Known about the structure:
Strand content of chain B: 25-35%
Strand order of the largest sheet of chain B: 6-7-8-3-9-10
Structural class of chain B: alpha/beta
Mean pLDDT of chain A: 84
Structural class of chain A: alpha+beta
Number of helices of chain B: 6
Low-confidence stretches of chain B: none
Number of domains of chain B: 1
CATH superfamily of chain B: P-loop containing nucleotide triphosphate hydrolases
Number of domains of chain A: 5
CATH class of chain B: Alpha Beta
Largest interface: A-B, 31 and 36 residues
Shape of chain A: elongated
Radius of gyration of chain A: 65 Å
Oligomer: heterodimer
Number of helices of chain A: 26
Largest sheet of chain B: 6 strands, mixed
Amino acid sequence: MRSAFVTEVVRSVRHSMGRFLAIVAIVAIGCGFFAGLRMTGVGMRKSADAWYDGTNLYDLELVSTLGLTDATVADVAETPGITAVMPTRSVDVMASMGENQLACKIASFDAEAAGDSTFDGRVVVGSDEADYLNRLILRTGRWPEADDECVVLEERAEHLGDADSVHVLYGASSLDGVLACRDFTVVGTVSSSTYTASTSLAPTTLGSGLLQQVVYVPDGAFDADAPYTECYLRVGDASGEVTATDAYQEEVDAVADTLELRLAEFADARLEEIRSEAQGTLDENRATFERERADALKELDDAKAELDDAEAQLADARRQLEDGHAAYDDGATRLSQSRRQLQEGEAQWESGRAELADGRAQLEAGERELADAEAAFQAELARFEEAEGAYEQGLAQWQAGVDQLLGSVSALTGGATTIDGARSALAETVSQLEGAVAAGVPGAEEQLAQARAAQGQFEAGAAQLEESKGALDGAKEELDAARPQVEAGRAQLDEARRQVEESRRQVDAAQDQLDASRAQLDSGWSELRSGERQLAGSKADLDDGWSEYRSGRADYEDGLATYERERSDALERLADAERELDDAQAKIDDLEGPDIFVLDRTKNYGAASYSNDSERIDAIASVFPFFFFVVAALVALTTMTRMVEDERVLIGTYKALGYSTLKISSKYLAYAAIASAVGALIGIAIMSQLLPWVIAQAYSIAYPVPERPFPLPVEIAPALWAFALGVGCTLAATLASCLSSLRESPAALMQPKAPKVGKRILIERVGPLWRRFSFSWKVTARNIFRYKRRFLMTVIGIAGCTALLVTGFGVRDAIQDIIDIQYGQIVHHDVVVGLAEGATTGEVADVEDYLGREAGAGELVDADTENVVLRDADGAGEDRNVQVICPEDLAQFEGIRTLRVRRTQEPIPFEDDSVILSEKLATNLGVGPGDEVRLYEPDEAGNVTSEGVPVTVTGVTENYLQNFAFMGHAAYEEAFGEAPAFDTIYTTMDDDPALRTEVAEHLQAMPDVDTVLFEDEMIDTYTTMLHSVDLVMIVLIVSAAALAFVVLYNLANINISERVREIASLKVLGFTRNEVNLYVFREILLIVLMGAAVGLVLGVFFEGYVIVTAEVDAAMFGREIHWPSYVYAFALTMAFCGLVLVAMIPKLNAIDMVESLKSVE
Amino acid sequence: MAFIEFRDVLKVYHMGDVEVQAVNGMDFDIEEGELCVIVGPSGAGKTTVLNMLGGMDQVTAGSIRLGDRLVSSMDERELTFYRRYDIGFVFQFYNLVANLTARENVELASQICPNPLPAEKVMAQVGLEHRMDNFPAQLSGGEQQRVAIARALAKNPQLMLCDEPTGALDYQTGKQILKLLQDTCHETGRTVAIVTHNLAFTQIADRVIHVHEGRAREIELNPHPADALTVEW
Lengths: 1161, 233
């Protein structure tokens, strides 16, 4: 009977493989995640514990601000519970290593024991020396054999480059009497469990505030007299416990408490030692001081006497010089008198000469006038003589004409000599001839004609001649009138000539007089000049005397001033020295014992942060798997409900046959138990290996904790918990679904279960909307709300899938933001050059000059940077290591760093009294603008020993890496009690690697350059971190996909098998394949959409939780999930859904229409 | 040529290695507007006839014709549209979509047809105008079958195929459904084929096809069919 039942169970598994696998898968995912994540935290702690135990890492550390005595170390060793003691010396220094200058810790270690130690290749370092603690694992090279040889941390060896030497530059405190060696040869690299976090070794006051390398040197490298700085202890009873667990902490605390009681005693012992040493030195110094003071006072008195002598001599010389000066003044007066006389004579001479020149000018004018008048007269005379000539000539011509005329008629006139005679002759002739004519003398007529013609011609000529005779008579008259004028002109000219001659004689006489007085004056001048030369000679003598006197005087004054200054200096120095001595005495008298601390591993930077990180995983482990279990329970519930409903008739038959309810339900419980147990085993088996490995990979960048070998041990407790929860959830869900069916009577069970009544849903009340729905949408809408469990299962499952994806992509965004926002929007400088404490402005200027001129740097911003510790206003709470930045020019500072509120992106005003904290720091301190925090300047060892100063926060700025406090000058001065010294330079530079190397080398060669930090080194660190997150992403995407597949496959499977009849009917009604597919899938798609929407919201919370839980103090991950991440998450979810649906299509197609004809079962 | 013609139809099912001849040379005609009852004992092949006539299954050999269309040569896609546009199917178990109201169930069919009858009108025709907004679970069996008939009618099909339409109903209700089918046939002139094992139905039919061992053994014409309400069984 029993075997039949088992057979039945086995068969039902085989026949419903899909259903079975759905439960297996979802339980596997849930249990796997739960167990895997739980084991990760434990595993991390165990890995660390194995490493710590293997390397004999200290449990307690005794640190003293003033060192420890040998007696104390011996005392401590006697303390019950302590099984091993190792005192060491260490000092924080800046050292150059290859091209880099790094903040290093130089730490002594037992090189001999190390040389003899053995290493098992993984974590165990064996040594016969029980007191050899913090055993180093040699990674490359060899152990140091000489005092100037060292080994350095392998994980930070990248700074070393090809170089193999370490040169110590300066220390956080004086290195005199501490380090015997300043140059070391690197002979090997090691791993040290003391520094579990390779990226943040430990805080320091040097450099950027974090140690960058640890240099292990043999004891001999330290001065033999240097005190031990710390003492490492091992608590035997604690070695059996896993580090960081309560049990471990209890054992360690017990011993620590014992030690704490004795700290005052240790401190006193060390105080006595220091005091006696100091008093000896002081007494010696005081004796020296007294001797030197006496010497100094005597020297001063001697100098004073010499000075007084010199003063008397100077007074004598002055008197002599003043006498000489009076004599010189007399001579000068005389000379100036005669000069005045000469100058007067000269003036007279000048006026005489001017007069003479006037006279001569007049004479010359007279001469010129005379010459003009003579010229005018000569012209007049010439004209007169010309007219006279012309008249004479005209007269001659007239006479010639008369002669000619008379000649022409002479034949007729018979030689008359005058015109009138001629005329009358002619007339007579004519009248003769007329008579002749009248007489008729032959030929008379002709003669008459001729005579008449000649008479006519003669008359014409006579008329002409008479006319010209008239003109000539006119001219003659004129000439006669002009002649007396010409004569008068000649007389005038002669008079003028005589006057000119007279005045010339006068002028010549005046010239002679003037020449005589010139000679007199010239002789007077030469006399004056010789007198003056004499006077000038005596003046030069006097001046020489004076300048000699003055230089003598100045020498004296200088001497006196020097004396006074030196005297006061000397006195001051003496007073200072005396005060110093008194102070030193007071100090010795007031000497306080050292602060001695007992530190356990929680105070170890690396161990604590590693243990915190492992606890962060625990925190995440306590949230995520819960979610998977809910989905697992819902999947089991729907699946098993469906199974029970499918087998109603069978159950009824069993019942009718007389099987007990328990027996029947045990079939389903067995089914569920097998499925969930298989799932749990598979899930635990896979995830207990995969998750711890993946997460260890992600953390391995930050922590060089040796990985554990595969297969990783399965932690029993989490595995059992996971198994119990997975199987328990499923069984509970199964029982719930069975019982409701099993309560029904066999008869009722034989009947088909009344189909779920169709119900109106809320959306139908919205008439207009509902009427627009097609029937298929109506069916979809009603179906979605008909099966609430399924709906819930799918929505939660899909929401989980989407949320996981959003979380994954969001975490990626968050880390990407560190790079993109921090270095894209907030930090604008590429390089920080830190100068040594106390660098002068000149040295800063030198560096800036180089940066600006040769390195092609952009704007240079000077600032003061200080590494401090902040605590909350009460001075309680955790120490927060903070870098204070106080820029010289607040406005300029905006160019290299944006200060803004993250949520609003509003710029934060940076004023003189501003104190702006970086966001993560403010969150950790729990303060906002207006709140108070307490600022401490740590001592050289990085410990808080002062009372601290209250500081009021004025703003909180967006920042993703490191903790900063940006302070204005006033705020800085108030906090530090001194003005800021701007010895750090921020600037921008091309990202050409060759240039940067060159710049770094050059800068580090410059005196006083302390650190050169290129910001892109940080970018590289976080880019590597991104890659490790990608691995986590793959795990997340695969689990999200698995979640989606299981849930959707289950939903689709149930939906189809439950509606075979409905689907067949639709086919008969003539629905096409696509219409049928859509009819079923629309509903699934809609639920998936809702699930995805919920998931997007849920994802925001998941992501926020993961980010806040996973981030470390010094970093703030981005707080915004970028929209593409939502898109990817959504798209991937939809893709998963699409895949499941496509896989379901053949199943739908296979539904036979004949199903619709079958009777309802 | 008759409205529906079955000619030498052969249907062979393969059940594993066994060949089953469900229909073996089926030959009959149905005229347009007739109420035809296909009757025979279980296993006679009447459901196979129904499947093939309804376009849910293909013939192995022979031909089936409806009007001018050769159903036997249609491929799967053509058959889908044949069912969609030409056939109104009434199931024994109504096969209403539980999640749709009566009216919506009718619309479910009418929405995929080119010339549907208004849902309200067919609902009135089957006498359920007052129950249109009820869900199937809120209706009695008879009412559900009326909705199913209305759903088939609304498609305005060439042929209404009914598979044991009264099989899940009590006697009185069954008669009323039969009456409804008969009235539908006679009043709208629609061809109705009823597949049943109940010989009593033959009285109301215009044409009775007796199916036996995969063949139409006898076809009788009934010039004066009885009123469905008077039939007794």
